[in-house]
Amino acid sequence: MHTLLRTVAGLVVMLGAAPAFAQVVDPELFGDGKPPVYREEDGDRRFLKTQIYAALAQPPKDESCRRILATLLVAYSDALPYLHRKDQNFYVDPELLQSLNRSIVTPDFPATAFLASMVRRTLIDKKVPPEWLQSAELYRTQLAAPISTARMKLDSESVGLIDSFSFTVPALLDRYAREVKLAPSVAVDAAEDKFRDKYMDRDIAWGGLLLWDVAKQAPPEPPKKSKKSKKKPAAEEPPPVDLPTWAIVGFPLGQPKPPVPGVPGSGQVPQLQIRARLVDNQSVDLTKLVRGTRVLVKGHLWDIGPNMEYVEVRDASIFPDADWRSWPSLATPRDVANCDIAVNDLSPYGYTPKAKRAEAPNAFSHTKQ
């Protein structure tokens, strides 16, 4: 397999698989309508023979190696919700990718190439390997690694691809502004209908959202009783047990400004309201989510309100979304130097095993002359 790796704003690009046909409307966002089909190639088979692949299923005892593997799984779990049908690119948060490049990418150990192989293996198998999930749980417990095992669990039986990780909230707002708001009054209705045809009914994953609330949908209010009626009121029916759960989140529309003293609400950033109807089986405990924290919503874009007042997502899953700007990484370049399996055995040209580390000299082993 001829593989090209390229890092651009958090993207790791892979090339070289056969496409399958699918019709799309917006090529810039959703590609040319030919989602890739992943078949095992030479590079994929080499990855199966690497020491990193073996260690993902069987955690090593060496602490340096464990920190490297945990760091790879942090980036891997961050990329999972954004795997898409558009092409073979995949997305990793730019701050997280920068941390990865600083900590474990060296001339002798191309960590991003191993990360790309991990993602590609998942797309070929169409699920997260259960051994990787077990290792991630171990590292999350023992090393306090910020691995999103909830995201891995969601794809443990079947990977759910979105339409395009380029189809973000800003992209949706930009398209609406250009294609609907700029339309003349006589064409607004037609423009909005065309917009819905192009951009609704899409599988999406949106991160960086702020949680407002998670609640069960309230039953409809009972009709008001007439004061003149002497009939006994009918017994109120109990609300249905299987009420849908909704997550209300917001996307900030700008940067915060200094508050004005004495003006309530000043300094707050306006937000686009996103209403996500959650599936019953969530990978995270909804009761442990905290209002105002960052979350990621993955689901099916269902509808928009008048003048884009809100966005509705159905069949959604919700996850905490880490802010990687201050994360120092688990591993360091010293860990790469000390770990015997951190070698480029993914290369088709072979590799040189690391020499065994010599023990530090004993300062008291000399003899007096």
Structural summary, described in words:
The chain is α+β, with helices and mostly antiparallel strands and 369 residues long. It is built from eleven helices and ten strands. A hairpin with a 5-residue loop joins strand 9 and strand 10. Helix 9 runs antiparallel to helix 10.
Please name the defining characteristics of this protein.
369 residues, alpha+beta, five-stranded mixed beta barrel, three-stranded antiparallel sheet, 11 helices, disordered C terminus
The gist of it:
It is built from 11 helices and 10 strands. It has 369 residues and is of the alpha+beta class. The termini are far apart.
Flag low-confidence runs: 1-24, 363-369
Percent strand: 15-25%
Largest sheet: 5 strands, mixed, barrel
Count of DSSP strands: 10
Order of strands across the main sheet: 6-7-8-10-9
Overall mean pLDDT stands at: 86
Supply Rg: 26 Å
N-to-C CA distance: 63 Å
Order of helices and strands: EEEHEHHHEHHHHHHEEEEEH
What is the general shape?
A: globular
Q: How is the topology of this model organized?
A:
Blueprint: E1 7-8, E2 11-12, E3 18-19, H1 27-30, E4 36-37, H2 42-48, H3 51-57, H4 63-79, E5 90-91, H5 94-103, H6 111-125, H7 130-142, H8 149-154, H9 169-181, H10 188-199, E6 202-216, E7 245-252, E8 271-278, E9 294-304, E10 310-320, H11 333-338
Parallel strand pairs: 8-10
Antiparallel strand pairs: 1-2, 2-5, 3-4, 6-7, 6-9, 7-8, 9-10
Helix pairs in contact: 4-6, 4-7, 9-10
